[in-house]
Amino acid sequence: MEARVIRGDLQSVTAEVLIVFHFEGEAKWLDATRAVNEATGGMVERVIASGDFRGEHLEHLLLYVAGGLAAARILLMGLGKREELTLHRLREAAAQALKALRERRLLSAVLPLPEGGELPFSPGDTAEASVLGGLLGLYQFTELRTTEREKIKEFTSLALLTRVESEEVALRVAQAEAVAKGVYVTRELVTLPGNLATPRFLAERARKVALDAGMRYRAIEMAEAERLGMGAFLAVARGSDEPAVMVEMEYRPEGATGSPVVLVGKGITFDSGGISIKPAENMEMMKHDMAGAAAVIGTMQVVAALKLSVPVVALLPCTENLPSGKAYKPGDVFRSLSGQTIEVISTDAEGRVILADALSYAKGFAPQAIIDLATLTGACIVALGNGVSGLMGNHDDLISRVRAAAEQSGERVWPLPLWDSYLELLKSDIADLKNSGGRKAGAITGGLFLKQFVPDGVPWVHLDIAGSAWEEKDQPLVPKGASGVGVHLLIRLLQVWSPLPAF
Q1: What whole-number distance in Å separates Cα of residue 481 and Cα of residue 390?
Q2: What is the pLDDT of residue 255?
Q3: 0.70 cut: is pTM over it?
Q4: CATH topology classification for 2-163
Q5: Residues taking part in catalysis
Q6: SS in 3 state form for 95-149?
Q7: Which of 12, 297, 369, 454 is the right S-S partner for 459, CB 3.0 to 4.6 Å?
Q8: Where are the chain's structural domains?
Q9: Structure confidence by residue, pLDDT tens digits, 245-257
Q10: pLDDT for 266-286, tens place per residue?
């Protein structure tokens, strides 16, 4: 979808559809809704009086215009109760509006931008939310469909109609498009099957993003990883015939000299569980075990597009986890890059094993902070359900910032404790750590395992996105499938980044 800003008069603007908002139960209408009602001889007023439209959140009604407007149709879009409106709910309303038009094979629309304090947001905020919401809701994965492609419905153009020219509004529309493109990259990578989205494929997509944006890119192949001592990463990789790779991407804005924020993404492109093999039912979904790495790739694209002022490094350990005669086994012990030894209790707890070496490797960048994203534990889904990411970390201020960014982005997170007492569950009789503490507090012990590999003195947050990386049914902003979780949240965090206080 193309988004643009136009100036003009509501009555004379030519459009397939004119979208106007309405609050539930309000006698005071938004200017555009009132103007449409007056131009059509009270049509909106009659519809509302009949009870056919109340303005509830996500409620919509398409009306055909007989005269008074240059537009052919009006879409009434409900915002719900005024006191409940947030930017996230506005994004949802915009998404629902455009999806409703697409279902009717309508290709374009004009949205008069509420201005002058009509909504509790600035015109820039409103414009960004409307465009970003519309783009996120319209996403569909059609790359692998070869038949009946003519039945694929597309929505092509949204114009925001303003009364006065505003550079801020145009800038915010461009920002919304950049964020949506990053989410699209992430959703596409997560959706692709494991035979296509191999570790090498993921690395190549990261390389393309880096080169297109002028970022530094480096791929650590298996031989170099062995020389460096990445025994944990290579332990998981040895079961697959697909070559594993550790990817580095580095964004450094012009003139920046400070330490970077390091983003680490779990890149298991297919997870069978290894020797501790998973049940066959739903195993096909394990193609999305690289959603953390995909989110980091999408985020890096947006960071460069928005020219953010903070340096950012991405580290992506990418491999498959498969059973074979070479695969690591329960009971094996491996030495990690940090020097700590890990006893393998379950080969299905592989994500934390590859992340251990990535977190240790981050030390070389002297990071301001480290944030990792991983579809780490089914236990997190048991604890928090779908659509929520588990949040753990070692630095209260960074945790608070991530929570604030989550609130702004609409991506839900919930904190879990990393009390040292849980370490008893990870004690090994023959090595420094076990890679699994059993069923009790599974999400927490997964995070606590990672904490042991975070460089000393570095603020760190872990996001367990096992329950939020994939939606099981359509949501206003997320069609069924890959959610792209993490991209919008991280961008909100990095846009306002400032140095963290010391521990």
Answers
A1: 19
A2: 87
A3: yes
A4: Leucine Aminopeptidase, subunit E; domain 1 (3.40.220)
A5: 278, 352
A6: HHHHHHHHHCCCCEEEEECCCCCCCCCCHHHHHHHHHHHHHHHHCCCCCCCCCCH
A7: 369
A8: 2-163, 179-495
A9: 999 999 999 988 8
A10: 999 999 999 999 999 999 999
